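Researcher: Next entry: Transposase (Haemonchus placei).
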Amino acid sequence: MGKVKDEAYELHMNPRTVVQWKKCFRDVCAEHSRRNTPIIGGFGCEVEIGETLVTRRKYNRGRWVSRHQWLFGGIERGSGRAFLTLVRRRDAPTLLRLITKYYT
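Model: Predicted structure:
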């Protein structure tokens, strides 16, 4: 059985209903994350920032698929507060703007 089928069986629901509820929960979590992004850093705090490319390989082989997305994020050591945002352009002005937006 697949994961959705297992969940549907446990919840006594139709698998399509389970998929719809999961989409709803993802949307709620994404909206909450957009509205409540923490400001990290401050005096005496260590902050790690980085970027990563999210993509997949075509047919799980060596070639890259043309669709990909860059993410930029940071985490505050100790408290664990973090931010993560999609980045369309990875040039210096864009990344500096994001650093000043999320880091105090």
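Model: Note for the record: DSSP finds three helices and three strands in the chain.
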